[in-house]
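Residues determine shape. Take a concrete instance:
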Amino acid sequence: MKVKTVGFPISPKENENRRAIVPSDISRLSHPDHVFIETGFGTVLGISDDEYEAAGAHICDHNEVLKQDVICDPKIGDADYLEQLHEGQTIFGWIHATQNENITNKIIKSRLSAYAWEKMFDKGRHVFWFNNELAGEAAVINGFQCYGQLPYGLEVAVIGNGNTARGACRVLNMLGAHVMQYNRRQEELLREEIDNYDVIVNCILWDVTRRDHILYRDDLKRMKKNSMIIDVSCDRNGGIETCIPTTIENPTYYVDGILHYAVDHTPSFFYKTFSFNNSKIIVPYIQELMEDNANEVLKECLIIRDGIIVDSEIKEYQNRE
């Protein structure tokens, strides 16, 4: 059996400090010597290259990492190196290919295989549920910092009832906000009651085949003066028509007097929390990718095989277009 190599590059995305794996979990792999870590990978975590080498991994430069059979990068859908990869290689991380046709085209052009973290479910539960909760928690914490006001005493609407919404509600409740939660069947009700809220938090991943919105630009006129929208999902012109994904460096903008916060990788604010938790989660899947022995979770999250789309959602979206 040929054991595949796995490369872990440092993400090129701005202020992206999350790391996919730590030394203690590399040592759990049957083939740690097939792991290639970019120089300085663990510096932000307080982990030296020597510690990765002691766990059995190789330390090398960025270009050498990108030569490996499998490339693992949490924000690989935002990577600037996909065109450097070649046929026969595999990418493993958050891709969001349905929402980003440009990324899909790059993967197809390079004839890569792609396993998408957003598609990984085990017995119906998202494998990365902890990160989703963290996204909601971090967005609320940083969003209110940008707002310049603590949540206590404020009226806040949260759209969604999944993991991200649970994280957002947890922090809002702890900080004394008055929280009302709306599910997907209550979009019309939210629009009717929009003037009740100081802040609206959107946690629904948008269905890109929809051509409508939960909140339209015209709805902003009925919101309270100086109110805010925190769009954790960050789907451009998606659930929130006026959403434009932002960065950690420039997290907010105004539309018609309403502050919008739409940072698209909020878990990076708590990169240590993410990294140590995530590392434990992905180790068994890294092992299976190394041995080319994908379990059902991996089989179901394979969206592109050797440059050919196999995910029905992407096919449906492209056909609709």
Summary: The first helix runs from residue 23 to 26. The two ends are 42 Å apart (CA to CA).
